[in-house]
Every structure is written in C-alpha cells, then in structure tokens.
Design a protein that fits this description.
Blueprint (H helix, E strand, L loop, with lengths): L11 H4 L14 H5 L35 E3 H4 L4 H17 L2 E5 L5 H15 L3 H5 L10 E5 L13 E8 L11 H26 L6 H5 L7 E8 L11 E4 L5 E6 L5 E5 L2 E4 L7 E5 L1 H6 L9 E3 L7 E8 L6 E2 L16 E2 H9 L15
Parallel strand pairs: 1-2
Antiparallel strand pairs: 2-10, 3-4, 4-5, 5-12, 6-11, 7-10, 7-12, 8-9, 8-11, 13-14
Helix pairs in contact: 4-7, 5-7
InterPro entries: DIOX_N (IPR026992), IPNS-like_FE2OG_OXY (IPR044861), IPNS-like_sf (IPR027443), Oxoglu/Fe-dep_dioxygenase_dom (IPR005123), Plant_2OG-oxidoreductases (IPR050295)
Protein name: Oxoglutarate/iron-dependent dioxygenase
Keywords: Dioxygenase, Iron, Metal-binding, Oxidoreductase, Vitamin C
Length: 369
C-alpha cells in the first residue's frame, strides 16, 4: 500500500527528519500561474536582474558538441579487474576535472525511468488544493511540496514547482496519484544500487578501501531524497530563473528528465548546456564529496534555464550520509595536506542550505578552514 503523507501528527521516526523552520503557505503554484490565459509577462516577484543566462559574468560555451565523461556501469561491476581499474580511473578524472558524468548500462529499466517521469507529471497535474495536502510544515519534513526554493528568504521567486520526499532509510511518499508510490519505491531502490556501486569506484579512486566511504558516511542509513521539479513554460525566460547557480548538499545526485533540456553546468568558467544520452543518468558531485575528498573533487556548480513554450520535468535523486554523520576530510587524504574543511554533521549542513537562499557554495564556504 502506498505510504500516506503525515497529517496532523508525527511518529518518532518522522520527527528525526524535521526541524523548527516554518514553511509559509504558497498562494499559487507556478504551474497554475503559467496556465493563466491572460499571462503575457511574469509578475515582478519572479523577475531577476541576473535571470538572463548569457549576460552573466560567465559566458555560455560556444562549443557545438561537448564530450562529457561517460561511465559504463556494466564495466565497473563486471568482475574483470582490468576493466574495473579503467573505469575507476575514468571516475577519478570525471570527478576531478568535471564534477559531472553520465552513467550508461546501469541496468535500471528504461520503462521504469519513463514510468517514474510519467508519475511526476501526473502529480504536478493534480489541483493546487490536492498538492497542498503535501505542503509540509517544516523544511525537513519527509514529504514536502511547494514552489521556488525557500519563500521565507527569497525576494525573487524561482519559476519552479517541486515535490520532495525522503525515500531512504525510510520510505515516505504521497498517496496520490494512484500507483506513483510503488513506481517511485522501485525506482529509488534501483537507483540506490547504482549509487552504491559508483561510491565504491570513487572510494578506490581516492586511494581508500572499496567500502571505505560506505562505512565512513554510514551509508547503510544514508539519506536518499526523491525530488521532482516542474519548470512550466515561461513568457519571459530571459528574466526568470528555474534555479540559480548552486551546488548540491549531498554526496552524489542522479538526474533524469522528460527529454526537455534546461540543465547547465559550469566548467572552466563557462556555462555548458547538457543534453543527456538516452537512458542514462546525469550524475554530479555534491558538497559532502568535496569535504570528504579534502577538496580534491569539487562539488559541481549548475543551474536551470527556462523555455518559452516547453515544460520541463526533472527528477533528482540526492544521496548523502546519514543525518547524524559528522563529515570531515578522510584522514588518509590529510597526511600530506592539512584539512581544508571543518567537520559538520550532515543534518546541520542540510538545514543550513534549506533554510537560506540558494546560491553558489554559500554553506560549504562556512566550513572551509
């Protein structure tokens, strides 16, 4: 049976995911605003002075085709030591030079990937009233639906609706639309298996034992967050933002989308549009990997741009340590180089990011030494 969103009471398990930061009631989801028949320009509350991608300090890359790092997961797990060693080296290069790579041959069925995106679409097609049932009371509630990023702090809102749920170590999910919870549970489980395989490779690439990161970050109880984003058509995409330049709070984020591009990553001072290989995962490094690697692997700065006539749906699976894990640079990586980051409990790091404005590496900068 699909798990129903918490209503007026919390179990002791649910309480571990919450804090005391209130979430305001939203007046309208962006989807409803975008579908207004008389909408010809965006409200001033969505107009950003930095909204136009090509007028920011970093220029958009003019390279017609960028060859992104690609990781063949089947070779990483084939049992052939030579093939595995080669892929581990490729992971090291991707994490150090890009902070981004595509994963192919990952054994998550394409039909499942398509079904979960369809489920996201059906959720966003619910009425505003139905979606508000899952709005949540606090920024770390296990199920939360809303708009923008943090409307308590923002003066300018982002052209984005979202639903975010914690799916590991416990599975929480909205009870509607029918069947969505079951699909999301299977998708989250299969994606987590790929994540753990990639983590072993990254651990080895840093000179650690294969299970070193798994044990250090207590990934058995690690947080996995299912977050789907809707970016509706925008009448003035040059003025609004889907999401601003930012890094992710976790360790690795796995992204899929509905075939409409919009993700841009920052590489060598330029913004690059990302068009994924069919049936692949887009994976980017997060702040916890930068901390653990003592800065050897940097978390990726990325942003989302909008379309005038297209609606984009993306699904991010954020994977991180357990909430109570204090993340510090791995001791093996600080023998010849002093620690560059102070230790911080992952729950505290997560709360800092979720309760402030989203921009750059503002939270990571707080723990730099």
């Amino acid at each position: 049976m699909a798990a129903k969103a918490p209503q007026n009471s919390q179990s002791s398990n649910e309480a571990s995911f919450t804090n005391n930061i209130p979430v305001p009631k939203t007046k309208m989801f962006v989807k409803s605003l975008a579908e207004s028949p008389d909408l010809i320009s965006i409200p001033s509350s969505y107009a950003s002075m930095t909204g136009t991608p090509n007028t920011e300090n970093q220029e958009l890359s003019e390279e017609p085709e960028v060859k992104f790092p690609t990781i063949d997961f089947s070779l990483l797990t084939s049992g052939n030591p030579d093939q595995r060693s080669k892929v581990v080296d490729e992971l090291a290069k991707a994490c150090e030079e890009w902070g981004f790579f595509m994963v192919i041959n990952h054994e998550v069925p394409e039909r499942l990937m398509e079904a979960v995106i369809d489920g996201c679409r059906e959720f966003f097609d619910l009425s505003d009233e139905d979606k508000l049932e899952f709005e949540g009371k606090h920024l770390l509630d296990p199920i939360r639906c809303g708009t923008s990023f943090n409307t308590t702090q923002e003066k300018v809102f982002y052209w984005r609706d979202y639903v975010k749920t914690f799916v590991h170590p416990q599975f929480f999910f909205p009870h509607t639309p029918q069947g969505f919870s079951e699909i999301a549970r299977e998708y989250s489980k299969r994606t987590r298996e790929v994540f753990l395989g990639i983590v072993e490779g990254i651990s080895e690439s840093l000179g650690l034992k294969a299970h070193g990161i798994y044990k250090t970050l207590n990934l058995e109880s690690g947080i996995q967050i299912f977050m789907s984003n809707l970016y509706p058509p925008c009448p003035q995409p040059e003025l609004a933002q889907g999401l601003p330049p930012h890094s992710d709070h976790g360790f690795l984020t796995f992204l899929t989308q509905n075939g409409v591009d919009g993700l841009q990553i920052q590489h060598n001072g330029k913004w690059i549009n990302v068009s994924p290989i069919p049936n692949s995962f887009l994976v980017n490094t997060g702040d916890q990997l930068e901390i653990l690697s003592n800065g050897k692997y940097k978390s990726l700065i990325h942003r989302v741009v909008l379309h005038r006539n297209k609606s984009r749906i993306s699904l991010s699976i954020a994977n991180g340590p357990s909430l109570d894990t204090v993340v510090t640079p791995a001791p093996e990586l600080t023998v010849c180089q002093r620690p560059a980051y102070a230790g911080i409990k992952y729950k505290d790091f997560l709360e800092l990011q979720q309760s402030n404005n989203l921009y750059g590496k503002s939270v990571l900068d707080r723990v730099r030494i």
